[in-house]
Every structure is written in structure tokens, then in C-alpha cells.
Amino acid sequence: MAAFEIQRAADFLEEVYAGLPEPPDIEDRQEGHKPYDRATDVLATIECVLEDDLRSAVEALRRSSRVTDAELAEEWRAEQGRNRP
Questions:
Q1: Cα 52 versus chain centre, distance
Q2: Residues contacting residue 55 through CB under 8 Å, at least 6 positions apart
Q3: Which one, 17, 26, 77, 84, has least CB within 10 Å?
Q4: Model's pTM, two decimal places?
Q5: Cβ contacts of residue 26 below 8 Å, gap of 6+?
Q6: 13-53: per-residue pLDDT in tens?
Q7: Do 64 and 1 meet the contact criterion of CB atoms below 8 Å apart?
Q8: Cα–Cα distance between 49 and 55 in angstroms, integer?
Q9: Which of 63, 66, 50 is CA-nearest to residue 7?
Q10: Cβ neighbours for 20, distance < 8 A, ≥ 6 positions apart
């Protein structure tokens, strides 16, 4: 359920992003030739939230909903083996 709700939030942000106009000089601003303006900052923030936070959260929650106890035990054993001198 949590993954579904986060996915809905991501979908909503994608719709907002798609509806926002890009400044005509966005490339100059993104490349550091000009300072960010509000529009560039909002677009960049939405991109970061989607890529760094929401999409990864959805994927992590989906993985957790599918993983088995046996798979988790195997991951734990593998991690224990890597941490031994």
C-alpha cells in the first residue's frame, strides 16, 4: 500500500513537472553560466525528488514486499562473510 501511495505522489509530481514551462535559458542556468531562477530551481527540485527519493522509495518498498525470508537470510549470510577478516 505504501508503495502505491508514493507512486501516486510521484505520478502527480511528474504531471506538475510536465505542465511547468521551462525558462528559455534553462541550459545556461543548469550549466552554471547564469544563476538559477525560481522556475529552474523548481524544475530541478522536482527532478531530484523524483529520482533520488520517490522512485527509489517505491522500488525499495516493492522489493520488500516481494522478498522472502530465505532470500533475506541468504543476503545476511553473504554480508557476514564479507565482514569477516
A1: 3
A2: 10
A3: 84
A4: 0.68
A5: 39, 40, 43
A6: 999 999 999 999 999 999 999 999 999 999 999 999 999 98
A7: no
A8: 8
A9: 50
A10: 39, 42, 43, 46
Q: Which three cell numbers stand for residue 68?
A: 522472502
Q: At 78, list the grid cell.
A: 553473504
Closest CA to 49 of 26, 23, 17, 18: 17
C-alpha cell at 49: 525528488
Q: Give the confidence band of 63 by pLDDT, cuts at 50, 70, 90.
A: very high
Ramachandran sector of residue 32 (left: φ over 0; alpha: ψ -120 to 50; beta: rest): left
Residue 71 has pLDDT above 90, yes or no: yes
Measured CA to CA, the distance from residue 26 to residue 43 in angstroms comes to 10
